[in-house]
Write a structure and sequence with these properties.
binds aspartyl-adenosine-5'-monophosphate; alpha+beta; 11 helices; 8-stranded mixed sheet; 5-stranded mixed β-barrel; elongated
């Protein structure tokens, strides 16, 4: 009987291990990224999950004779000798002298776009997205989502170190948590239910259990507009913490997480940062401004007449971003104390001025990437606020179990992962930093 030991046999080496195999024969597996025929020899670039490795085919290296069936995007196992040389700057370079190529699979047809340049040149975003499974094979495209991995990993690692517990909340829910009309309705065996706009109600419930919780998961917003910063499904990095002394604890946790994330990107994700020329911000401390002070600044300093005194439009966010960078030397700016009318029912009003809330948004290079704040923890206060907003507390009976049976002072935040990635990489459209975006016009691939 065969027994499975849980060890995957490896008959190949990584490019990073080449120095240890200098002069020896090794194998690599990957895609034929590019073939460049020269006089008397060819360069064959093999793309592995991480690297693009230069291999050289010349009849003098072995008895192997090149198989003309091997074209770009063929999957192959290449065996050859590792040879080293020095480049003009004196750096050690490694390549593989091909001894044999084993075909593992051949593409059925030629590629519809060129993917083996440094970046995808002159290809419309819609085409890039239509062909995502292959356009993402381009080294620059795939680097975007390694950076995104780094952000989510940094968020998780930092919070685990701060004693947060990772949770999984349902995405089919009984009620909307964020208000507004941007909620998807679902026929659930004849009953109307919804796709979760956020894990808000559940992360609060679980504060009552674990005190500090976080979740990185998809959320759904029925956005009817086709904008460069809205998706209908995005990844929300949420956290919620109990026994706080104020919403400043939440902002401090976010700054701690962002510092950790940026440091992780600069170190363990450096190669991707370099490929993308990403401008990773230095964070020491993040300035804050109250919502109404920000409005005044926009009117006085920038002579901008706001249309809406309850929220910011994209131009206002951009102007505030410029102000933060130029005058405060910060890529980030917290705006605090948003008007009560614009914040969801769970938000705690400022006891000193109930027109405003103990809440904040974080702007990163002039774009809102986070909302957060302190929540109402008192049962009667929460029921009263729901009633004031015309909501039916009975519909939220299970949510209110938290408040009814004792909730600590608590608060939290949600960060849009794709938006953060977008501004970190200087992308113009959030779809560029979304693996498989969902918008009003797109549900494929
Ligand atoms: P909010 O609704 O402001 O807050 O969302 C939090 C963050 O999510 C991102 N975001 C989006 N990203 C892409 N497409 C969208 N349609 C979209 N909508 C929002 C933004 C935003 O700052 N429950 C609260 C958070 C909390 O208080 O804990 C919430 O969901 O980056």
């Amino acid at each position: 009987m065969d027994k499975v030991k849980g060890i995957v046999n490896k008959d190949t080496v990584e490019f990073s291990e080449f120095s240890a195999y200098d002069g020896q024969v090794v194998s690599i597996k990957g895609y034929v990224h590019r073939i460049r025929e020269m006089t008397g020899f060819s360069f064959v670039i093999i793309r592995t999950a991480k690297d693009t490795i230069q291999c050289v085919y010349a009849p003098e290296f072995s008895d192997y004779r090149w198989d003309e069936k091997i074209v770009e995007e063929a999957c192959v196992k290449v065996t050859g000798k590792v040879v080293s040389s020095q480049d003009a700057k004196g750096n050690q370079r490694y390549e593989l002298q091909i001894h044999n190529v084993e075909i593992l699979s051949l593409p059925a047809e030629g590629l519809p776009i060129v993917i083996n340049k440094k970046q995808l040149d002159n290809i419309q975003l819609s085409t890039v997205l239509d062909l995502r499974p292959i356009s993402m094979r381009n080294p620059k495209e795939r680097a975007i989502f390694k950076i995104q991995e780094g952000i989510a990993r940094g968020f998780r690692e930092y919070l685990m170190k701060q004693n947060f517990t990772e949770i999984r909340s349902p995405k089919i829910v009984f009620a909307g948590a964020e208000g507004g009309t941007n909620i998807f309705k679902l026929d659930y065996f004849g009953k109307e239910v919804f796709l979760a706009q956020s894990p808000q109600l559940y992360k609060q419930a679980l504060v009552g259990v674990y005190e500090r919780v976080f979740e990185i998961a998809p959320v759904f917003r029925a956005e009817h507009h086709d904008t460069s910063r809205h998706l209908n499904e995005y990844t929300s990095m949420d956290l919620e913490m109990g026994f706080i002394n104020g919403f400043e604890d939440i902002m401090n946790t976010e700054v701690g997480a962002l510092k950790y994330i940026m440091n992780l990107l600069k170190t363990e994700y450096k190669e991707y940062v370099d490929i993308l020329h990403a401008d990773i911000p230095e964070i020491t401390e993040v300035p804050t401004i109250k919502f109404m002070d920000a409005k005044e600044l926009l009117m006085k300093k920038f002579k901008y007449q706001p249309q809406d005194m309850k929220d910011f439009d994209p131009t206002e966010e951009e102007l505030l971003g410029k102000y933060a960078k130029k005058e405060l030397n910060s890529d980030f700016l917290f705006v605090t104390h948003y008007p009560s009318k614009k914040r969801p029912f769970y938000t705690m009003d400022d006891p000193n001025d109930p027109e405003y809330t103990l809440s904040f948004d974080l702007l990163f290079r002039g774009l809102e990437i986070t909302s957060g704040g302190q929540r109402i923890h008192d049962y009667n206060e929460q029921v009263a606020k729901m009633q004031k907003l015309g909501m039916d507390p009975e519909q939220f009976e299970t949510y209110l179990l938290l408040h009814k049976y004792g909730a600590p002072p608590h608060g939290g935040l949600g960060i849009g992962l794709e938006r953060l990635t977008m501004h970190l990489l200087g992308a113009k459209n959030v779809r560029e930093t979304t693996m498989f975006p969902r918008d009003i016009n797109r549900v494929t691939p």
